[in-house]
Amino acid sequence: MPAMTDRERSSAATYTPVLRRFPDPEALGRAAARDIAAAITRRLETRPEVRMIFAAAPSQEAALRALAAQPGVDWTRVTAFHMDEYLGLDDGAPQRFGAWLRRTFFDRVPLGAVHLIDPDAPPEAYARPLAAAPIDITCLGIGVNGHLAFNDPPADLDDPAPVKVVELDEVCRRQQVDDGCFATLAEVPERAITLTVPALLSAEEVFCMVPGARKRDAVTAALRGPIGGHLPASALRTHPRCVVYVDEGSAPR
């Protein structure tokens, strides 16, 4: 079956994500962490493990820090994946997303298993453990250009590949400088490996944490504009169980 056009997708069945608004990023992170922990615990009552995908970005730090401190979560039954990684950075580069997630979250809880993207391996190598069983929960954010993971616009919302190599656009690369991850645009890699939009949204439940005034336009367009690859985050409205957390800066207009 051919992929839908943006017009066809906008007229197809869509959902209204739950929108939760908080005064600041810390309050946002605490609330999201409570909700995510409850979702994990609820699933572990009826299944042997929970499989989760995590984003690596400063916008996710408050939620992940609070999630690591949540009581009563059996992390030994949680398998973790991360959703994107730069190509071309040195193995020890602190900007690598796998390293960031280890520092921020993965090494702070006793996870049952952690699968990190190897930028030197083909995308298919990461797709295999990802496809071994269904994904339960995806925790992500929205980029200033509306990207999900490293799916910059225009993105294929029906991409048949679960993982692929992409070229990063300048807006996305500039965000990495503005976030303080790199000193200059020239230092930001031009290529990355990423989970595709369908892979991210294959999860049963999606938690999207988007603090900061620089994200307001993207959040507004994602929740209220047409659905299509011109703004990948608009695909969140095709998921039946998505919660979007915003603060005063990022709340939609």
From TrEMBL:
InterPro entries: Glc/Gal-6P_isomerase, Glucosamine6P_isomerase, NagB/RpiA_transferase-like. Keywords: Carbohydrate metabolism. Transmembrane segments: none annotated. Pfam families: Glucosamine_iso (PF01182). Residues 23-238 form the Glucosamine/galactosamine-6-phosphate isomerase domain. This is Glucosamine-6-phosphate deaminase. It comes from Actinoallomurus liliacearum.
